[in-house]
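Aggregate trends can hide what the representation actually does to any particular protein. For completeness, the protein is quoted in full, as a sequence line and a line of C-alpha cells.
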Amino acid sequence: MDKKLKEVVIVSAARTPIGKHGGYYNYVPAEDLAVLAVYEAIVRSGIDLAKIRIDHVIAGMIYIDSLNQQIYLPRNVAIRVAEKFNDKENLRVTPGKTTLRICGTGFQVLADGFDQLMSDIENAGCVLTFATENMSQTNLIQQGRRKKENVWDFEDGQLRDYLMEGFNHNLFNTLMPQTAEVYGAQTGITRKECDDFAYLSHTRAMKAQSKQWNRFASPGSNNYLRGIFTVDTIDQAGNALSVWRDEGTKYDTNKDELTNLRPMLKPDGLVTPGNASQISDGAAAALLMERSFADKHHIPYLAKIKGYQFSTVPPEIMGQGPVPAIHDLLAKLDMKKDDIDLFEVNEAFAAQYLGVEKELDLPRKRTNVNGGAIAIGHNIAATGLRITTDLVYELKRQGLKTGIASACIGGGQGGAVCVEIV
C-alpha cells in the first residue's frame, strides 16, 4: 500500500486513575499497573485475539531497573495479559520493545507505533502501546562499581536517590524546577498567577470528578473522564479498595494555603510544592491500527493520529518545549491554532505552563479543561499517553473534532501529538 494513503487510528485507549506518592499504588508495581491498562484497552477494543493479530508491543517506562525485572516489561506484560485472555498464539508470542523519551515517553510510544504502522517495510496492521510508572517505588541505589579483580565483588559507593537524580541535568547544572523558574521569569509570570492557576487546576479536576464516569455511576450520568477505568486493589491494611478517581486532586485546596507555601528554590521564587506537578503512579494503554486494516476487519475506532512532533529548546528553559513542538506540528500538518478545538498541555509547573500559554496565546477555556498534572499528577513516562487518552474522550464528550496534546521534556525538548475524532 502507498505510504501516503495510510492512516493510523486509535482503536481504544484506557488509563488507570493516577495515584499520589505513597497512595493507591504504593505496593502495586509498575508492571502490574501496565497489565491492568493493557487488559482494559483490549477489552474496550472488542477485538478477538484469535482473529486479530497484534504485530508489536511498544512499552514506555523511565525508572527501569533489572532488580524488579522491568527490563522485560513489554514481554512480561504481553504474556500476563495473554494469560487473562487464554491467548497462546497472539500476544504471548508478540515481540516487544521499551522506548524512553523522559517526560515525552507516553508520546513516544504513540510515535513509535505510528511509524511502524505507516512504514512500508514493517507492513504491520495492529500495534499495542502502553506506558507505566510507579514513582513511589523508585529506589535508593548504592553506586559501588564492580571490582576489576572480581566481577562479583563491589567497591564502596555513594547512596543515590534514583528518582531525584533524574530531576537534575548535570551537564547544564540545572534542576527541572529551576528551568521553570527561569522560563517563567523570562515570560513575565508572577507568583500570584502561578498560585491562581494551581487553584484552577484543582477546581477543574474536582468538577470533572464530580461528573465522572465509573462503574458505580448511575445510568445517564455525564461521561467525563471516560478514559479512566476502575482499578481493584488493596489498601495498606489488606482491605479491598476500588479506585476510580485521580488521588492527587485536593478538595480542600484554597488560595490562601497556596499563597502561604514557601518557594522551593529561592525566597522570591515562582515554584512551590503547591503549583508544581505531583510525583505519582499510574499507567495508560492504547491499541493502534492502520485504518484500512481496521476497516477491513470492521473494527470501530476512536480517533485518527494526524501526526506528532518533537522539538528542542535550550535545556535551561526546558519548560518552553511545547511552544516549538506545537508550532512545528501545526506547520507540518498545514494547520492553524484556530483549527484545534482542545489543547492538553502538561502542567509540569504552573510557571512553565503559563509561559507556554502566554507565548502560544492558548485559549484557557479550551486548554486542560478537566485540570492537569498539578491536580492530577505527573507519572512521568505515562503522562503523554494519559493526556492523549483524556483528550480523545473529552473531544468525543463535547462533540468536537481535533485536539493537540503536548508536554515539555527533560533535556530541553517538547513533544506534541495531534488527534482527530473520526
